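Morning F.,

Quick status update on the modeling queue. The single chain you submitted on Monday has been processed. Sequence for confirmation:
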Amino acid sequence: MSATSTWHPSRGPRGSGPGLVIPARTGRFRRLAVTLVGLSLIGSAAWGVTRSRIFDLRSLKVSGNVHVSSAEVARVAGLGPTTNVLWLSSGAVAGRLKSDPWIRDVRISRTLPSGVSITVVERTPVAILAGSHLLVSSDGVVLGPADATTRLPLIEGPPGHVGSAGLPLDLPALRVAASLPRDLATKLLRVGSSPSGDLALRLRDGTKVLFGNAEQDQAKAAALQALLRWMGRTGVRPAYIDVSVPMAPALLPVQGMGAGSGA
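Structure tokens below.
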């Protein structure tokens, strides 16, 4: 009767001695390598998806723009059909748009996979720079040439001002021009300085306005606007209007008041 023998997987064929034994550490290294390769393949695939045409820009909505066209907004922003919306840098786009002098602020939002919305806040011109005939905004930014139909007051730049350089915010003439309601600004031809240093305004009909300094500019603008409405009702045509003390404005009429007139 023959003896019973047992074969173990860790040994070679019976009678051939011990078989090959794979250390446990080597097995772990293999599993780790396989995992890393798998993750690398997944990462590469994911990267490829984020760069695919799925995220190409297909819808661009621009709002708030009046002077700058939507096409110009897209051009300055550097946006086009091949723009990847997922990887779009809103900060970079905003920076490019703010390089346009007409654009004061901008808000950008994305709608994945392919939509971008841009809300533009434009600057508003308040005066025309005398000599160069350039439009100027309330914050002193020179916006570009004024056309022949623009009705805004002329102002002088500070001594030494050249070309399209921005104007200082504390320039009295700019400060006053920025404080004027739009319908009043269109009636003014110029905001200048008198020999005494006070501001002197001139209406388009030739009437002079003594404004005093730039303090209480809004109150003075309101007083001037009220006087002009009163003059329209009464037919008075003054040689000058004095609003340097806005609570007690005065005028020197060339013609007398019409019948039934009153302040």
